[in-house]
Amino acid sequence: MSFSLAFIAHEVHRHGGQERAAAEVLSRLARRIPVTVIAARCELPDAPVVWHRVPPAPRPLVAGAYLFARSARAAERRAGCTLTNCIGASAFDADVITAQYCHAAFTARFGGLRGGSAVGRAWQRMAQQVFVRQERHAYGSRRLRRVIAVSRGTARELHEFYGVPESVISVVPNGVDHALFRPTPDDAAKRALRASLGLDADACVALFCGGDWERKGLRDAIDAVAGQRDLLLCVVGRGDEAAMRAHATARGALAQVRFVGKTTTPERWYAAADLLLHPSRYEAFSLVTLEAAASGLPILAHAINGTEELVASGVNGYLVPFGGEALREPLLRLRDDADTRRAMSVAAVERSRRYAWDRVAAEYFDVLAGAAT
To answer: Which pLDDT band holds residue 180 (cuts at 50, 70, 90)?
Structure first.
């Protein structure tokens, strides 16, 4: 079937989460159909896409999102494509919306809070109210034909909180590049990699990867490793490092936590680690868990969107209740049992196979083609 696609998002590139997911899918869709990207930033050098640049949303985003959507609407009309697909409420409305988050669900369950001062929390509450209204408007549009949810849990949330009919929701998960994210071939290669990263060859290395540290549970991860021998927590990404250092100090865990910062080669850290510690409170479907699984890491996490589909508890990781205490026992089990880690590593890679980007993009195309009929 022949149709053309206008894709609206704030940014499309191979960094971050939803930005990278969009880049991986669009680079493959552009081999089959004409694709126009409407965004403030687009980095797809390997794909034959047309980029209509629009001004970035002014800060704060809660106020600037409207201006971005207005500019995107004008660019969409100029593009004249058959079908328009956007991420969440980045556009006023669209034929197809890809749901990489559900602000109403996060607000209902956690108040939309990500930590910080009393003033910061008050601002977050107000911002979440605006984000929820924007999403409610986009998902309630008469124009909407299909919704692509990246996990079954996100699909349930869209139906529960926004009343999106189940009949228009398709679940197409996020994916992973198995050529980039893969296990080290043997123990010698892993030791050499750890030496190059300045990591102890014999310690059990738990990896925490991502930003938005309060939502993703870094405090709980620090609590879980505190006071435990031969455990090192490597934190890859950016956040409020001063606050987390203070928390680690208070818990007597500062020597056990290494803040790596942002990296352009996360695959090296996955390959060097022994397990992924991912106590996030809310996700749609975290790319971090998929990359960790493809890299052969057992995953210690909560049963949230996406993770509940990827992790079979006791097979390729453990799903536990919220809180640092709940994380500690399975964490120590993985630290002390190399045979279990090896078995879970094999299982993690195998379960990740279903999420290859080529397969994901093919499923995504099928949804778009159905919407274009």
So the answer is: very high
Rg of the chain over CA atoms, in angstroms? 21
Tokens read off for 34: 């004409």
Q: Is 350 helix (H, G, I), strand (E, B) or coil?
A: helix
Pair 282, 166 in one domain: no
Q: Which domain holds residue 32?
A: 5-175+356-372
- Burial (CB < 10 A; 0-12, 13-18, 19+), residue 14, is middle
Cis peptide before 321 (omega within 30 of 0): no
pLDDT in tens, 205-217: 999 999 999 999 9
Backbone conformation region of residue 55, classed left if phi is above 0, alpha if psi is from -120 to 50, else beta: beta
Instruction: Say how many domains are in the chain.
Output: 2
Counting Cβ atoms within 10 Å, is residue 275 exposed (0-12), middle (13-18) or buried (19+)?
buried
In a domain, 159, yes or no: yes
In tens, the pLDDT along 10-47 reads 999 998 899 999 999 999 999 999 999 999 999 999 89
| Distance (Å, whole) CA 317 – CA 352 | 13
User: Does residue 60 have a pLDDT over 80?
Assistant: no
What are the tens digits of pLDDT across the range 227-242? 999 999 999 999 999 9
Q: Across the beta sheet with 169-171, what order do the strands follow?
A: 50-53, 35-39, 5-8, 83-87, 96-99, 146-149, 169-171
User: Do 95 and 240 belong to one domain?
Assistant: no
Residues 340 and 367 in one domain: no
Q: How far is CA 195 from the centre of its chain?
A: 29
